[in-house]
Amino acid sequence: MNKEEKQKKKNKPMTEDEKLKYEIASELGLLEKVKQGGWKSLTAKETGRIGGLMTKRKKEIMKKQAQN
User: Fold this and answer.
1) Cβ(45)–Cβ(24) under 8 Å?
2) Running DSSP on this structure, what letter comes out for residue 38?
3) Residue 46 CA to chain centroid, in angstroms?
4) Where are the domains of the chain?
5) Residue 58: per-residue pLDDT
6) Which residues have C-beta within 8 Å of that of residue 39, sequence separation ≥ 6?
7) Which member of 20, 50, 62, 67 has the greatest number of CB atoms within 10 A?
8) Rounded distance, CA 46 to CA 3, Å?
9) Count of CB atoms within 10 A of residue 63's CB?
């Protein structure tokens, strides 16, 4: 990835999924690790934990929306 592509990526607004991922990483105390080394610096266990919690939260959100 060249500098131009990186700059475009930085200016792109975050999706709801990305916001949720950062929120969960922060709650688990992993946000600083992500900021320093990127998502690739996480272990498989840490990544799986974030993914599992994202799925759980999405299901809760969908359930609330279905009730309204």
Assistant:
1) no
2) -
3) 12
4) 16-67
5) 95
6) 47
7) 50
8) 29
9) 9
DSSP code of residue 41: G
pTM above 0.85, yes or no: no
The pLDDT tens digits of the residues spanning 4-61 come to 555 556 678 889 999 999 999 999 999 999 999 999 999 999 999 999 999 999 999 9
Asked if residues 30 and 46 have their Cβ atoms less than 8 Å apart, the reply is yes
What is d(CA 57, CA 26) in angstroms, rounded to the nearest whole number? 15
Neighbours of 47 (CB within 10 A): 14
Provide the H-helix boundaries in the chain: 3-11, 16-27, 31-37, 44-67
Burial of 36 (0-12, 13-18, 19+ CB in 10 A): exposed
